[in-house]
Amino acid sequence: MSDKICPDTGENCSCDGSEPCTCGCGCGHTPEEERAAAAYREAHHAEAEEASRAAGDRELERMIIVSFDSTFDVMECERLCLEAGVPGRIIPLPGSITAGCGLCWAMPLSGEALASFRAATEGKIEPADYHQLLVPRFSQSGE
């Protein structure tokens, strides 16, 4: 099973990497893409452990992390998402992700949140990439 987010549904893709996507989500993952995702997960396993230590007593939550190539795009993302009621907030970019700026948008891992995000931002800003990471749980108010 893959830890990659299906770009069509926003849910975890159930591909096993042995053949093109078989979970019915329509994401079209190829075996090569699944192997690359598995290698990425393995290489970044240490980051999840580090996040757990950094969180201390705070509970960890798997989030969709949206990276951008510019700070302007992150700020515009926040404005668009707040106006549309998309759950999430700006956080510092985790060390395992490389992008043009040091900030990203973090939102709950759900198809509904991803669909709301895409509806609010489509044609207005261009995310650099989508990631799925464990981060310390935060309240919507930023506490």
Briefly summarize what is shown.
By secondary structure, the chain is an alpha+beta fold. Helix content is 34%, strand content 18%.
**What's the CATH first level of the largest domain?**
Alpha Beta
CATH superfamily of the largest domain: YebC, transcriptional regulation domain
Instruction: Give the strand order of the largest sheet, numbering strands 1, 2, ... along the chain.
Output: 2-3-1-4
Helix and strand composition category: alpha+beta
Q: How far is it from the N-terminal to the C-terminal residue, by CA?
A: 33 Å
How big is the Rg?
Answer: 15 Å
Helical fraction equals: 25-40%
CATH architecture of the largest domain: 2-Layer Sandwich
Q: What count of domains describes the coordinates?
A: 2
- Estimate the strand proportion: 15-25%
Number of strands: 4
Which ranges are low-confidence, i.e. pLDDT below 50, for 5 or more consecutive residues? none
User: Quick check: average pLDDT?
Assistant: 75
